[in-house]
Amino acid sequence: MKPLVGIIMGSKSDWETMSHAADMLEQLGVPFEVRVVSAHRTPDLLFSYAEQARERGIEVIIAGAGGAAHLPGMVAAKTSLPVLGVPVQSKALNGMDSLLSIVQMPAGIPVGTLAIGRAGAANAGLMAASILGNKYEQFHLALEAFRAKQTETVLSQPDPREA
Ligand code: RP5
């Protein structure tokens, strides 16, 4: 199956965080691609990626970036596909800069912004599967199974002192 989700990030250094989105999609059986697309280092690539994503069959874009994180917002400006933004935890400001850069989109061009770092990346994968699950039954079922297993894991270990 061709990739349905495009995971993009501003730098190779974001992969440690964004790999959690990839792991989640892999676990749910959702086909995806991964690319480094920098808003400020490769602006032309950013434009062409966003412009061509839909015609290539991509249905959801997950964009992660840190610092002055304009990648998700700029991608959203160039495509009407749903864009999920993941604020990468920056060294200088712990990701508060990334979060505020991504979340504060002016009305008109939305970016669905997730939490800073690993949790945000994993949840972006889950949310992409949830969006796709409306159209593809197998992803809906995979997501339901993931959640049921997660619940069962918590319920089967009620005492936090036990391994
Ligand atoms: C942003 O600058 C990237 O998204 C990354 O989080 C941050 C630092 O990039 P590197 O200097 O590590 O390449 O564009």
Automatic annotation (TrEMBL):
Its EC number is 5.4.99.18. It is an enzyme of class 5 (isomerase). It catalyses: 5-carboxyamino-1-(5-phospho-D-ribosyl)imidazole + H(+) = 5-amino-1-(5-phospho-D-ribosyl)imidazole-4-carboxylate. HAMAP family: PurE_classI. Pfam families: AIRC (PF00731). Substrate binds at residues 11, 14, 41. Catalyzes the conversion of N5-carboxyaminoimidazole ribonucleotide (N5-CAIR) to 4-carboxy-5-aminoimidazole ribonucleotide (CAIR). The lineage of its organism: Bacteria, Pseudomonadati, Pseudomonadota, Gammaproteobacteria, Oceanospirillales. Keywords: Isomerase, Purine biosynthesis. This is N5-carboxyaminoimidazole ribonucleotide mutase.
